[in-house]
Design goal:
By secondary structure, this protein is an alpha+beta fold. It folds into 2 domains: 59 residues, Leucyl/phenylalanyl-tRNA-protein transferase, N-terminal domain (Alpha-Beta Plaits, 2-Layer Sandwich); 180 residues, Aminopeptidase, CATH 3.40.630.70. It is built from 7 helices and 11 strands. The strands form 2 sheets. The protein has a 7-stranded mixed β-sheet with strand order 6-7-8-9-10-5-11, sandwiched between helices. Strands 1-2-4-3 form a 4-stranded mixed β-sheet, with helices on one face. Strand 3 and strand 4 form a beta hairpin. Helix 3 runs antiparallel to helix 4. The longest helix has 15 residues. The chain is globular. The relative contact order is 0.16.
């Protein structure tokens, strides 16, 4: 018989998070669940991400805070640009109607992400209060959108959180095939150019694994975040030269 999980701490607004080592383990009903309550204001979100904690909950639930072990991450130098995705990216870069932009439509990106369910979950986890919270985080300079545009239309993208030298991926969407993957390629190219070596992917999915993401221990993850948090945050502006981080320019026009 399994032991009952330890009581889940309830946090009042402004109360400090418990150590991530106190998160529920694999024998508990929700591995990685750390606490409930508190608020989604900018200061709380910044504190949470700096401690390797993120919010994730569904409608009708209180705010739930997670720190899973292991943690799914993408080491940016291990990103897998498969042949089919390489061809998609080459086609995108050859087309003058196609463009990657940063932070020009954050609200539209997060709303588009909210319209699709998270893998394996019914409904959406990006509730209206989450949208408002991350828009405030964006206004404070800590959340960013990577956008795929075709013929002046937003067709795909993702949003993420950035603190110091760490990028925490949140969600992505695509209205046309591979538009979110192009945005992911842009984020990886930008991250490499800015010496960001790891992108947090939170939890394991087959899609992320196919792009080269792997699980690491929570201890390894927290040690990395602690180390890079003191670095200056990069300037979130995408330059075409960053594509060199994925493909030499001479290959961009090669069939």
């Amino acid at each position: 018989m399994k032991k009952p999980p330890r009581p889940l701490p309830w946090l009042d607004a402004g109360e400090a998070f418990p150590p991530v080592s106190r998160a529920w383990g694999h024998d508990d009903p929700a591995p990685g669940l750390l606490a409930a309550g508190s608020t989604l204001d900018v200061a709380t979100l910044v504190q949470a991400y700096s401690l390797c904690i993120f919010p994730w909950y569904s409608e009708g639930q209180p705010t739930l805070w997670w720190s899973p072990n292991p943690r799914m991450v993408l080491q940016t130098q291990r990103f897998k640009l498969h042949r089919s995705l390489r061809k998609t990216l080459q086609h995108f870069l050859r087309n003058p109607a196609c463009e990657v932009r940063f932070d020009t439509a954050f609200f539209d990106v997060i709303n588009a992400c909210a319209s699709k369910p998270r893998d394996g979950q019914p409904g959406t986890w990006i509730l209206p209060e989450m949208i408002a919270a991350y828009c405030a985080l964006h206004a404070a300079g800590h959340a960013h959108s990577v956008e795929t545009w075709v013929d002046e239309k937003l067709v795909g993208g993702l949003y993420c959180v950035n603190l110091g030298g760490m990028v925490f991926g949140e969600s992505m969407f695509a209205h046309v095939t591979d538009a979110s993957k192009v945005a992911m390629c842009a984020l990886v190219a930008f991250s490499r150019a800015q010496d960001v070596t790891m992108i947090d992917c939170q939890q394991k999915t087959g899609h992320l694994a196919s792009l080269g993401a792997q699980e690491i221990s929570r201890d390894e993850f927290t040690a990395h975040v602690t180390q890079v948090m003191t670095r200056p945050a990069p300037t979130w502006q995408f330059e075409p030269v960053y594509w060199r981080e994925l493909m030499p320019f001479k290959t961009l026009n090669t069939p």
